[in-house]
Amino acid sequence: MTKKLIEFKNVTKEYNLGDVSIKALDGVDFSIYEGEFVVILGASGAGKSTILNILGGMDLASSGEVFVNGNNITQYDDKKLTTFRAEEVGFVFQFYNLIPNLTALENVEFASEVCKDHLDAKEVLEKVGLGERKNNFPSQLSGGEQQRVAIARAVAKNPLLLLCDEPTGALDYKTGKSVLKLLQDLNKETQKCIVLITHNTAIAPIADRVIKVKSGKIDEVITNAETQSIEGIEW
Ligand SMILES: Nc1ncnc2c1ncn2[C@@H]1O[C@H](COP(=O)(O)OP(=O)(O)OP(=O)(O)O)[C@@H](O)[C@H]1O
Q: pTM score, two decimals?
């Protein structure tokens, strides 16, 4: 049986703003297995980013437990969380957050070289189709190319999982699709677990499973019997 990689157990998150308390997550339970491509889907404000931030060790749950690869990360101290973020999780955000005065290759190396089992930065850049552009600075690359560098940077760490927060949010339709295809291909080729959050229901069929979030709760979990290639999906 496939191994459970991620488990959320009754996770809550409350933000206290003066007298007002906002329940961003209200008893969230789900599991994600090794090698899965999972889409977390929900409307704006549903709690998607909060889930991803807690899963990536960037935010702390108010209560509940989060297991990653068998370890309860809610019990980690700051030092352990820093190592977890640096080595176990690859992040891809809507805005690529590349370092402007480093080349594409240097951006990838900078992030990965601190990791024990990192991959060869040049090879990963080639894999995302940017071998020829390795000496370019971010400002010399298009948005889609910058996002590919950001994906290479995340992949080169050889992390346990990739967390992608609206990775196509700043891209046009066609470029966004090619970035999703890259993620889908990477998942198929390397079996690296990918968790991608989006509000775009159209892309749900590319995932092995879809976790729907609504008002801080899990609304529904859908298993796609067959995943669809992004090329065949229009929206
Ligand atoms: N730092 C914060 N302080 C206060 N409230 C917050 C904070 N972060 C998130 N929230 C609230 O928690 C709820 C869930 O937010 P979250 O960002 O997780 O939603 P989302 O599904 O990712 O939305 P979007 O698609 O718009 O990014 C929202 O009501 C939001 O206003």
A: 0.95
